[in-house]
């Protein structure tokens, strides 16, 4: 914190935790670290507790939190992949997120319990908690979160920051036009001097989920079957494009559609991560055909090369009026003219979809053709895919470990005195 | 250092510095070899030979390798040159906070408790405040209600006068939407009024100049205009931008052409003035010395006429400049006068100075050959002088000739341009300015040079 010669260095860590709840996953970890401790899927399996897992699947009940009463309809919550990705009869998959904010608070509480007991493994009373939020989070949702943290978890301090602001910080900017291409939506938010301009923020429902849905359509139209990976007992090695030969597992009866769909969605996402690629300019059959294909093997054993399809698939992310370039332009033009040069000069990209190969280059190219030529345009993003995906969390990690930030927290004393009404003032 | 201490038998202070030795031997006190007991060097034995003898402790060396001694691995490695100092997870309060909340952080156990160092960065903009009555007395406005003004001042405080953010967070549900300029205007107005009626000097809007309060005046109309222009600048369409680019490129081309033309005119002016200064002295000075052929004089005057014409032409294009551009500067060839001290060959004086280019030198030599003059004559005093003058005049003549040719060329080019732009018409150039190329060529070069010669050439006779 301070050096031998009285120099003051920027950091002062106070054991704070950073939570970044997203549609795809929740990131949680200690401030001052460079990656989150855990990246937990943002869905929770809810099933009857009466079920006794098969012998081979029996794990010490580590990751399972129990709730309900001992009598009758006991419910168990299955969190994180090791628990969630196990086929269990009557386990419904539910999410606590809706439209970028937390909606189902009971479920979210289960998630927080899991974070504190299994990830952090330290009492919540010891750690100030910094949460990220979407720009358009409503006031009741924000206040509910503060209430939860202070009253249920006894957090010593709490703070809420807009994830766009944090993504800008993670890229070393306090003024930036942040494009966040997440799972459920893509948004563009101008950030000026560390404050998000709420009224200029724009978003569209095109994101990673949309891409996965497109992948599903594409594979259907190519008559390629995506078998659930958990249903395969064994498969034979076959030649490319040959009919798959596999044997199926006997699965427990009563697998819920929500769980099956969730599992399939993960597989389509995996397919996208492996093969999807964004072409530098608008899709063109001939240029795409020149690029060597990428091989992908499906769970059933069927495998083939994907060539131009890789590029065709991602075109849905750059649709005229829904794609990221359009959003950036709309957000910039909604800003005051004085702020625009600085915003165009630092367009910051983050979010999981921004980690797609070629995505950033395409964005830069499209912006260059759309941005007013009187501005100097510069597009930034962290170099590694993980850093792009975790940009908001990393920004939170930086912020919460800065010495001069420590005066910003809403402490539990302040909460006791001022109530949740002060949230609007203290966390702009 | 240790060696010297050893030699002088000085007890070492227990080292807090980590050395390689103390890492290897750990904290164990260094075993002092007892050298006192050792046998003295026998008389007559060389020191070097004696040094080869084994005499550590007088023990026999071990017969088998042993591993009971302390090796590297049993020792704790010490990193850094000092002993590690302890850190503790300690509570602290932050004076920048109003609530005395206690947080914990790591600090050195030895560091005494002092004020939280980051508190010094807690800086706030001070915003003027007013009471209800002050508002009613001074700040009432047709356009702004008190609630709205309060809201503005509150936002100013919260966002430290970042008006872009203030505008963004403006409560549009409660109050009507206002532009940033409106907000700024109201805020600075209030600052101005309050700084006049109240004594507390706050923030940056009031500066004291010679004990007199200066209030920052915000020119809202100007700002509105500026922003409007900025917006228009940013919202130009691609066609507009392209057109502007095209026009700029055109303008640049035109300017380049103009500059080129001016340069040429100036060159010409220089030459003319040179020639003129030559002939002027010729007229005013000893006229009796003028070359004997009257035809030459007539020729000369005609040439002069023509030059004046040209001068007029060019001065019509750029009247002011052309007149100013007349620089009376002699640029035949300037031969350096005096050499350094000591003996030197006179032929040195006939060497062309380095400023004369290769091409000019060649051309002069060519002319000399045409006149069948030796290009390296015997350098008597007189020959030297006249030969130099001759070459100087030749150089000028060549320049003039070139200038004439380029003018001629330009004239023709302009005529072609004129005819191209006005098809059907022809431009007849009056013969007075048209160079009937026979004119110069037919004349023996020597004659021209005689006439236009330098003053010194006129005054001097061989
Ligand atoms: N390496 C990758 N390549 C392509 N897409 C990815 C990659 N990693 C994650 N994604 C996609 O990004 C989305 C998650 O982005 P994220 O920013 O974490 O969303 P959220 O903040 O809503 O949780 C998912 O749809 C996922 O499929
Ligand atoms: Mg996100």
Query: Whole-Å distance between the termini of chain A?
Result: 27 Å
Indicate the radius of gyration of chain A in whole angstroms: 23 Å
How far apart, in Å, are the first and last alpha carbons of chain B?
Answer: 93 Å
Average pLDDT of chain A: 90
Strand order of the largest sheet of chain A: 3-2-1-10-11-22
How many DSSP helices of chain B? Answer: 16
Shape of chain B: flat
**Count of extended strands of chain B:** 4
Q: Largest interface, counted with CB-CB under 8 A? A: A-B, 39 and 36 residues
Organism (chain A): Leptosia nina
Family (chain A): Belongs to the actin family.
InterPro entries (chain A): Actin (IPR004000), ATPase_NBD (IPR043129)
Pfam families (chain A): Actin
SSE diagram, text form:
The complex is a heterodimer of chains A (428) and B (462).
Chain A: E1 17-21, E2 25-30, E3 38-41, E4 43-48, E5 64-67, E6 75-78, H1 81-84, E7 92-95, E8 97-98, E9 101-102, H2 105-120, E10 129-133, H3 139-152, E11 157-162, H4 163-170, E12 176-181, E13 186-192, E14 195-196, E15 202-204, H5 208-221, E16 232-235, E17 246-248, H6 257-275, H7 285-290, E18 294-297, E19 303-306, H8 309-314, H9 324-333, H10 340-345, E20 347-350, H11 359-370, E21 379-380, H12 385-389, H13 391-400, E22 410-411, H14 412-418, H15 423-426
Parallel strand pairs in A: 1-10, 10-11, 12-20, 20-21
Antiparallel strand pairs in A: 1-2, 2-3, 4-6, 4-7, 5-6, 8-9, 11-22, 12-13, 13-14, 13-15, 16-17, 18-19
Chain B: H1 2-8, H2 20-25, H3 47-52, E1 87-93, E2 102-108, H4 132-139, H5 146-158, H6 163-168, H7 180-197, E3 206-209, E4 212-215, H8 220-234, H9 238-284, H10 294-317, H11 319-324, H12 358-370, H13 381-421, H14 438-442, H15 445-452, H16 455-459
Antiparallel strand pairs in B: 1-2, 3-4
The complex binds adenosine-5'-diphosphate (ADP) and magnesium ion.
């Amino acid at each position: 914190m301070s050096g031998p010669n009285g120099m003051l260095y920027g950091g002062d860590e106070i054991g704070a935790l950073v939570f970044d709840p997203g549609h795809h996953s929740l990131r949680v970890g200690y401030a001052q670290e460079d990656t989150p401790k855990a990246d937990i899927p943002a869905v929770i399996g809810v099933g009857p507790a009466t079920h006794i897992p098969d012998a081979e699947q029996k794990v010490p009940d580590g990751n399972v939190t129990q709730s309900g009463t001992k009598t009758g309809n006991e419910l168990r919550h299955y969190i994180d992949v090791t628990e969630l990705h196990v086929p269990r009869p009557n386990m419904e998959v539910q999410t606590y997120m809706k439209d970028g904010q937390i909606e189902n608070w009971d479920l979210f509480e289960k998630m927080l319990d899991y974070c504190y007991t299994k990830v952090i493994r330290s009492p919540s009373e010891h750690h100030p908690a910094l949460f990220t939020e979407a720009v358009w989070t409503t006031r009741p949702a924000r206040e509910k979160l503060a209430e939860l943290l202070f009253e249920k978890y006894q957090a010593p301090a709490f703070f809420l920051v807009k994830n766009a602001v944090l993504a800008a910080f993670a890229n070393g900017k306090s003024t930036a036009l942040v494009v966040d291409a997440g799972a459920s939506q893509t948004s563009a938010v101008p950030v000026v001097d560390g404050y998000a301009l709420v009224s200029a923020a724009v978003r569209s429902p095109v994101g990673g989920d949309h891409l996965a849905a497109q992948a599903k359509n594409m594979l259907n139209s190519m008559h390629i079957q995506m078998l659930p990976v958990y249903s395969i007992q064994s498969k034979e090695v076959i030649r490319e494009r040959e009919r798959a030969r596999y044997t199926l597992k006997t699965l427990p009866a009563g697998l819920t559609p929500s769980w099956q769909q969730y599992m399939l969605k993960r597989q389509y996402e995996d397919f996208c991560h492996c093969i999807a690629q964004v072409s530098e300019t608008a899709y063109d059959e001939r240029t795409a055909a020149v690029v060597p294909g990428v091989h992908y093997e499906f769970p059933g054993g069927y495998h083939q090369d994907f060539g131009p399809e890789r590029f065709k698939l991602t075109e849905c992310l750059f649709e005229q009026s829904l794609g990221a370039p359009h959003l950036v332009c709309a957000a910039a033009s909604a800003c005051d003219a004085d702020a625009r040069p600085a915003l165009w000069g630092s367009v910051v990209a983050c979010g999981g979809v921004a980690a797609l190969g070629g995505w950033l280059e395409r964005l830069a190219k499209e912006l260059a053709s759309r941005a007013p030529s009187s501005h100097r345009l510069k597009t930034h993003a962290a170099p590694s895919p993980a850093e792009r995906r975790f940009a908001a969390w990393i920004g939170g990690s930086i912020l919460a470990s800065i010495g001069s930030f420590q005066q910003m927290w809403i402490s539990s004393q302040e909460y006791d005195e001022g109530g949740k009404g002060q949230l609007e003032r203290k966390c702009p | 250092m240790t060696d010297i201490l050893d030699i002088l038998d000085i007890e070492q202070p227990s080292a807090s510095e980590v050395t390689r030795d103390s890492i290897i031997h750990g904290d164990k006190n260094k075993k002092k070899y007892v050298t006192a007991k050792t046998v003295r060097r026998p008389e007559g034995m060389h020191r070097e030979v004696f040094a080869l003898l084994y005499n550590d402790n007088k023990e026999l060396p071990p017969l088998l390798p042993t591993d009971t001694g302390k090796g590297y691995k049993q020792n704790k490695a010490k990193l850094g040159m000092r002993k590690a100092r302890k850190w503790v997870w300690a509570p602290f309060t932050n004076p920048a906070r109003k609530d005395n909340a206690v947080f914990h952080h790591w600090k050195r156990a030895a560091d005494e408790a002092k004020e939280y160092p980051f508190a010094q960065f807690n800086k706030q903009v001070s915003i003027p405040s007013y009471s209800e009555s002050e508002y009613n007395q001074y700040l009432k406005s047709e356009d702004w209600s008190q609630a709205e003004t309060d809201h503005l001042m509150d936002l100013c405080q919260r966002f430290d006068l970042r008006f872009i953010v203030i505008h963004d967070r403006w409560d549009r549900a409660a109050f009507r939407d206002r532009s940033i300029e409106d907000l700024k205007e109201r805020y600075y107005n209030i600052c101005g009024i309050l700084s006049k009626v109240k004594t507390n000097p706050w923030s940056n809007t009031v500066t004291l100049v010679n004990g007199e309060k200066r209030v920052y005046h915000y020119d809202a109309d100007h700002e509105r205009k500026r922003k409007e222009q900025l917006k228009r600048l940013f919202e130009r369409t691609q066609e507009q931008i392209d057109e502007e680019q095209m026009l700029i490129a055109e303008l640049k081309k035109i300017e380049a052409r103009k500059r080129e033309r001016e340069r040429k005119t100036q060159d010409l002016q220089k030459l003319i003035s040179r020639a003129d200064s030559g002939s002027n002295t010729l007229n005013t000075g000893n006229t009796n010395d003028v070359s004997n052929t009257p035809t030459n004089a007539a020729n000369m005057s005609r040439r002069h006429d023509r030059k004046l014409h040209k001068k007029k032409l060019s001065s019509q294009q750029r009247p002011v400049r052309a007149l100013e551009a007349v620089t009376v500067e002699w640029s035949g060839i300037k031969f350096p006068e005096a050499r350094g001290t000591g003996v030197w060959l006179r032929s040195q004086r006939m060497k062309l100075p380095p400023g004369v280019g290769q091409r000019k030198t060649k051309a002069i030599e060519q002319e000399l050959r045409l006149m069948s003059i030796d290009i390296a004559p015997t350098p008597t005093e007189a020959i030297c002088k006249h030969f130099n003058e001759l070459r100087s005049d030749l150089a000028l003549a060549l320049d003039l000739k070139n200038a004439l040719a380029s003018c001629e060329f330009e004239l023709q080019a302009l005529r072609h341009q004129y005819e191209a732009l006005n098809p059907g018409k022809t431009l007849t150039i009056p013969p007075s300015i048209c160079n009937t190329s026979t004119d110069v060529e037919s004349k023996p070069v020597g004659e021209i040079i005689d006439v236009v010669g330098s003053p010194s050439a006129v005054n001097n006779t061989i």
